[in-house]
Structure formats: structure tokens, C-alpha cells
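This follows on from our talk about sequence and fold. I would like you to pick a protein and set down its sequence and fold. Go ahead and set the record down below:
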Amino acid sequence: MTEMTARIIDHTAPTHLIDHNLVPETICEGILFEKRPAKDTKGNTVAGLYNAWITLDNPKQFNSYTTEMVKGAILAFRAASNCRDVNAIVFTGTGDKAFCTGGNTKEYAEYYAGNPQEYRQYMRLFNDMVTSILICDKPVVCRVNGMRIGGGQEIGMACDFTVTQDLANFGQAGPKHGSAAIGGSTDFLPVMIGAEQAMVSGTLCEPFSAHKAYRLGICSEIVPALKIDGKFIPNPTVITDRMLDEFGRIVHGEFKTGDDFKQGRELVKSGEVDLSLLDEKVDALCAKLLMTFPECMTKSVEELRKPKLDAWNRNHENSRAWLALNMMNEARAGFRAFNEGNREAGREIDFVALRRALARGVPWTPELIDSLMPGGKG
């Protein structure tokens, strides 16, 4: 840009720009909002342009979102969408253990369980958080720094791109913990990975590797994060080479079994987690997005989001009502079990005892729920 051109742009720019944000600040406990200088495709910092980083900052609880954090995320996405100097948004979590494991189960168990009218209002906020991602005027990159589970998977899939480190796990919690994955996953998964694999994820709730997530198509980029003796190596607990099992099926991305898995876990413990390659890949993607016409980019993103957005808009309001009422029985039991359980006793209810009780016509009572808790007699 020549000096003369710069003068012309400065001279013709409005002397006052209207602030379109709803509130003057986006500061909320548990949400970090930062504008980081954008880089071009050669890695050079670009003056005056930024990428907005929105970070879930609750690492002690695996970046699970509290009610206040949901409010903060909504405000942060609105602010980033309105920022004239922001190229793209990076949505991530603090640390290297978790991007997000969903709603804060302590808050769910101790406040919302048994209070459907309160949870219904909470779900209005949650729905607004998902919508704020889906309608953002800037492309959104989910930087998966660790586990993306449950509601974390849902807000992650609402993003436009996913870049992950390969130690991360993905998946749903739903029927294992007293809920259904209707905060986005039942809308997004069939669109993104097909009906059969969506059914597997949404009902069985078995976590899967980042390599399988990449194979299924819910990640656009994957990088190693484990360093052994100063060198990056692929996740040693996962089969990372394409191979066939005894039935001739491709198992690339599946977890190893038996001693191989245990050895892989020990190798992970002995190494160092380094997310520098993840950050390089995120920066490179943001740089590619920078080198485009901004309004053409926004329109392209809007159109390409439509399959997810259409499914989301059809369902999220009636899903909110069901989730609220579910807080009186199965969710009340499931969230309590997760909150009160531990590694030794487990964090799931006695499913057999529950099904036997319901088969006998036993009503949902506090006594029934107490009997189902981890370590209970059933």
C-alpha cells in the first residue's frame, strides 16, 4: 500500500463508527476473549488485523461450561462477529486435557436437577450459544486442545472448521448419563458423518480417537502432540496406520487393545504434551482465510452452514422443553451419579436395577434415585 493510498483511505473513513454490540464488555468468569495479531501465509504478522480467540477457561473441571460461561460465550461470539478488524475466530479451551466436556455436571446436579423450570431457562442460553456460533459473520475454527465430549462435541461441531491434536478424544455422553444428545449432535452428526455412525455415537456414547474423528470427517486437520525425546510421535494408544482387522475391516483410528493399549498409555505418561504444531496449523488455516474477499467469505460460510443450521432450527426449541422435563427423572439421576461418583465406584447409575424397577411399575421417587447411585444396593 502506498503512502498516498493510505492517506486516501484514512481521509474517507468515517470519523465515528457505531458500536453494534449489546453490552460494552464481554468479560465473564470462565471465558477469555483476546484479539491476536493475524498472520499471512508466510507467517508474518499483519498490522491492524486480528484473529479473535475465545477460550473456555475452567480447566479444573475440564473446561465444562457453567451458566455464566454460556452467557460469556454468547457475548464473546457477538463481539467477535462485530469486530471490523477480525479475520477469523478460534474457539478453544485452556490447557491440554480438554477443549470442553459439556455442561458443568456439578451445577447440573446441585442446582438444575429436579428444577425443570430453571433448566428450561438455562437451555435458552445454551441454544443461544450454539446459534451464536452458527450465525457468526466470521469463520469459526475449533482448536481441539483435548477432550471434546458431550456438549463440548456439540458446540465444537457448530464451528466451521476443526483442527485437533491427536491425543484428544471425541464423543457423546447422552443416554449413559441421563440425557440425549439433542443440544446439536442429533442435528449435526447425521449431516456430517452419516446416519449409521451418528447412531453409534449418539446412543452407545463410546469415546473415539481424534484419528477416527478425522477419518469420519468432523476434523479438517490433525497433528501429533506427544513428544518423546524431543520428537513428535503419533498417539501410541491408537492404530494410526490403515490396516485390516480379522474381519477385513479398516480400523484406522481405533484404540489399541490389551497390552498394546497399556504400553501406549505408559508412553503417553512418559512423554511431553506440546501443542505448538496445533497452533501452527490453526495459524496457517486462519492465514488462508485471511487471503480472501471478506464478504464473499461470509456469504460462502453462511451457505455452507445451512444443512447444520436448518436441522438445528427445526429441533432446538422442542428439544429444550424435553430436556427441562427430563431433569425430573433420568437426568436427575444421571447427573447426580456423575457428580457424586468417583473412579472406584464409577460415575454411572445401576442401569439394570433401574430397568427392573421400571418394569415392575416403580415410580420415580427420591428413594429410587438414591438406590441407583454408584455404590448403592439397587
